[in-house]
Amino acid sequence: MDWRDHGILLTARRHGETAAIIEVFTETHGRHAGVVRGGASRKIAPILQPGAQLDVLWRARLQEHIGTFQVEPLRSRAAAAFSGRLALSGLNAVVALLSFCLPEREPHPGIYRQTEQLMDLLGQDEIWPLAYLRWELALLEELGFGLDLTRCAVTGTTEGLAYVSPKTGRAVSAEGAGDWADRLLPLPPVLRGQGGAPDDEIAAGLRTTGYFLAHRVAPSLGHTPLPEARARFVDQFTRRL
Q1: Where would you find the membrane-spanning parts of this chain (predicted)?
Q2: What is d(CA 189, CA 204) in angstroms, rounded to the nearest whole number?
Q3: 3-state DSSP assignment of residue 172
């Protein structure tokens, strides 16, 4: 059996003397692994870089087998990724989280399209962190842990929303928080798509999304902790504040 798709390379590791095992996030077949014969060669190895856009043909005798990939490059993102430390750490965070969070062979076309758009912004450091924050919000939603930031979970108001409950993922107003404010997560306007999205708000938003990735998503998968690549990206970003 076989199928053809296009996707984003997440990981590649050497297999034996000449082959490589790659993991690709494809639009219609999800996160999928396979062997690339000759993947360690001088001709193919440079193609197999994280973030690369590939056309892949997968073949296996049985569906449950790991199978083999034939790959053709569609777009390399190496130049953008190596344009600076923020771009490289951001790319590493995205591919690490996808490999960590997504179940194998389960299609997620929505988050695939958003990931492709995010990857194409690599190297544009002024807009990429905001796009990345929105991507993390979309990833939480895709995994069933979306945040409800429309109204206060305590009072029902839509005004003065300032916090997120770490237990429910729902917004809380300053009035509704009361004495519990120091136990809640920040809700900067940028998380609700409001305002000019300054870097300090993006950093606060990443603190909130990071909490739910670490304390909701990771335990649900039996994995802990989150990939270090995410923490390195956040650290690289906050250094410029």
Answers
A1: none
A2: 10
A3: strand
**Model-level pTM?**
0.95
Q: Please name the amino acid found at residue 70.
A: Q
User: Does the N-terminal peptide bond of residue 46 adopt cis geometry, omega within 30 degrees of 0?
Assistant: no
What CATH class does 2-76 carry? mainly beta
Q: Which residues pair with 32 in a beta bridge?
A: 24
Task: Give the pLDDT score at 70.
Answer: 97
Which helix (H) or strand (E) segment holds residue 177: the answer is helix 174-177
Domain 80-149+187-238, CATH among 2.40.50.140, 1.20.1440.120, 2.60.40.10, 3.20.20.70: 1.20.1440.120
Length of the chain equals 241
Residue type, 124: Q
Q: What is the pLDDT of residues 64-92, one digit of tens each?
A: 899 999 999 999 999 999 999 999 999 99
Integer CA distances (angstroms), 107 to 25, 33, 67, 104, 120, in order: 9, 14, 18, 9, 21
